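In response to reviewer comment 3 from the previous cycle, which asked for concrete evidence that the modeling workflow produces usable outputs, we include below a single protein chain processed end to end. The sequence was submitted unchanged, and the resulting structure tokens are shown without manual editing.
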Amino acid sequence: MLKEILKRGAASFAISAVCGLVVNLVIDLVVNAAGVQTEGGFISMSPEFRKLFATPVMAAYINVLLYGLIGATFSGMSFIFECPKIGYIVQSLIYFVSTAAVWIIVTILLWHLHRYPQALIATIAGYGVTYIIMGIATYKRLKSDINEINSVLDISEN
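The workflow returned the following structure tokens.
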């Protein structure tokens, strides 16, 4: 099981890192092609984040690694849904808290949301609402699958 969790985490790390890199590249290309004038050119990272590192290139590398960390956490923590002795609601709460902790820490570091309380609250609320919608959709799908399995079992038992 641990080997599978690590495989999933590594794959999601790579996918998230590449997707983050591509998104940042597209944003940078579009903004710079549009002729937006900024000192030193536009880079899709907060100035506060860039100041944490000796060079913008190092900041960009760390930025990509942090995107990967988010993906690895989301994928790696999905093992909680494979624990049969824990109910779905508890599994969902554990998954939500663990992924939100990593996601919020990374986004605060990248975007410095702690300096903008309304943006921080809106971001956390958006994450929470999105997770609730996903949780409800997943629950309905699981319930439908269970009902379908039960109906097949009822037919085969008769």
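The first helix runs from residue 2 to 33. We consider this sufficient to address the reviewer's concern, and the full set will be provided in the supplementary archive.
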